[in-house]
Amino acid sequence: MSKSTSLIKESWTEVTENVTWPAFSDLQSSSVLVLVASLIFALLVGAVDLVFKSGLDLFYTSF
Q: In the chain, what are the domain boundaries?
């Protein structure tokens, strides 16, 4: 039990004293970047899906 307690205490010390956290504005800009990239990727995947669906519908109705 003392090993796990020691691990938690050392981890807490590492996180609170030794880790350099980014500024809030940096986090916001990174979050906006991820959101925009995710939306663009979703639109591209949706467009490819629509093209394949239309192509397959055209293919299957031709027979």
A: 22-63
Cut 0.85: pTM above it? no
Give 3-41 pLDDT, tens digit per residue. Answer: 999 999 999 999 999 999 899 999 999 999 999 999 999
Q: Integer distance in angstroms from the first to the last C-alpha of the chain?
A: 71
What the block records as the tokens of 38 is 């995710």
The residue type found at 4 is: S
Which residues have CB under 8 Å from 30's CB, separation 6+? Answer: 22
Query: 22 CB contacts (<8 Å, ≥6 apart)?
Result: 30
